[in-house]
Amino acid sequence: MIFNLKKTLKLLKKNIEFSLFFFLLIISIASTNLYNGYSKSIDENYKAVINNIYFEKTINHIFDNLTPRYKNINHIIANGETFDKILNSYSITSDEITKIKKELNGNHNLNNLKTNLNIIFTIDETNNKKITYFVFPFSRTEKIITNLNKKIVFKEGKISQSLYKTALGLNIQPNIIIAFAGIYGFQVDFQRDIRKNDSFQIMYEVFEDDNGKIFETGNVIFSDLKLSGKNNSLYFFGKSGSKGHYDKNGRSVKKALMKTPINGARLSSAFGMRKHPIDGFNKMHKGTDFAALMGTPIMASGDGTIKRARWCGGGGNCIKIKHNSVYETIYAHMRNFAAGIREGVRVRQGQVIGYVGSTGNSTGPHLHYEVVKNGKKINSQKLKLPSGKILKDGERKSFEVQKIKLDVLKSELIIGLN
Q1: Which residues does 288 contact at the CB level (< 8 Å), separation at least 6?
Q2: CA 231 from chain center: how many Å?
Q3: Is-contact 318 308, C-beta < 8 A?
């Protein structure tokens, strides 16, 4: 009797172990199917967004934990929340926030967020909180969808007519051309210093969607403008507080004021005495005129605050920028001002502030440009200003490492083109 009881208990134990194993197997299979179902749901939601279809608030926070690398966020805008506050709450870096804001700020006001709408984005947890996908709703029907897949582009060319035309012929984006001109605008007069068969190289960032279409451009990370056989290589250094372009010796290319605040222009009237084209008598011309096509972008020649952005009588639409306690600059005869440009706004060196026109007393489209030093108008083309900062100590070491990396990357891209 005792023997039969032991046998029965032993058999029961085996059955329990088998049953437990079978139960765990069922749970495992069910979990796998649940995971696949959730993954499919996420893919279908993304496809719906890509097709500009507004979808209900169905993405649950549990989805965020299904993939270890990419974290998917569905944030509902609450009353009083700001754009920066929302992204900061997910530990997004300031550089990423700046990049996203740059993408969105062009046509919309981020200071007026609509409550109860969804911000959807994906964070790459293994890549310093980089945002790889972003959907921002400005209304229930209008959304901006951003896939930030960064790619480095290298281009080089020989200048045949003008830098602008040559670069356009190489399919370089206009804003990259403007950025390139802005980098060298501190030391080069693009009308008089460039000769036929001078050449250039440029390496810059672009952000593509999944179909390879360029959605946005980033920094110019390397450039070289070869004038009369002499290279002028510049490297981008992105450290906070010292961000900018530097020559091979770690000297910043940035100066107090740009020599020419417009690209692709012809010097049509220099500073000094001249016969006034409208009044017909000799008169002191206290500025420099650059003839250019109607609508050509005009850049701020230095950091500063806009003190005037309105109609200025004979000067037509004009802008006055105060750069510091010594220098001011004036830009006249503009067709119109750039978006967001108004009195009291702070502008950056190289930022587009307006467009070439022929307003006021003008015989054709051109920019009248003035530099004022201590209240006196001076010849901008003879202005000599000290160069910017020189990287030292730890920053110089970091820059040297960055320079080597960019040189290697450039070589790899050149090999890839051949």
Answers
A1: 267, 269, 270, 271, 368, 369, 370, 379, 380, 381
A2: 26
A3: yes
Q: How far apart are CA 76 and CA 133, in angstroms?
A: 17
Q: Which amino acid is at 289?
A: D
Going by C-beta distance under 8 Å and a sequence separation of 6 or more, which residues neighbour residue 357?
A: 294, 295, 316, 317, 333, 334, 335, 336, 365
Q: Dig out the tokens for 383 from the structure.
A: 């202005």
- The DSSP code sequence of 40-59 is HHHHHHHHHHHTT----S--
Q: Is pLDDT at 173 greater than 60 in this prediction? A: yes
E strands in 280-380 = 282-285, 288-291, 297-299, 304-311, 317-322, 327-337, 346-347, 352-356, 366-373, 376-378
Report the relative pairing of strands 199-208 and 214-226 from DSSP bridges: antiparallel
* pLDDT per position as a tens digit, 338-389: 999 999 998 988 899 999 999 998 888 889 999 988 888 888 777 777 666 7
**E strand or H helix that includes residue 163:** helix 163-169
**Residue 366 is encoded by which pair of tokens?**
């051109």
- The pTM (predicted TM-score) of the whole model is 0.48
How far is C-alpha 128 from the chain's CA centre? 19
